[in-house]
Design brief:
By secondary structure, the protein is mainly α. It contains four helices and no strands.
């Protein structure tokens, strides 16, 4: 992630924290509850994609070379 994306993600985490702390207040509001659940799902998706992007891929290239040699 670049700095702009990281700052945006940190803002999302702050909003998520506020929503979770005040869940008792907004759970009676169906529209807000729906949007909030969608938002929380998006934050989890971003977290998963960030973990995937941050993985070290050096071993993958070595495995591809090894598999190509084995196929030949």
């Amino acid at each position: 992630m670049n700095y702009k994306s990281l700052n945006k993600y940190n803002m999302y985490l702050a909003v998520k924290s506020v929503c979770e702390r005040n869940a008792a207040i907004w759970q009676d509001l169906p529209a807000f509850a729906s949007i909030c659940s969608d938002f929380l799902a998006c934050v989890e998706t971003i977290k998963t994609l960030n973990q995937t992007q941050a993985q070290i891929t050096t071993g993958i290239a070595a495995n591809k070379k090894r598999l190509r040699r084995e196929l030949c």
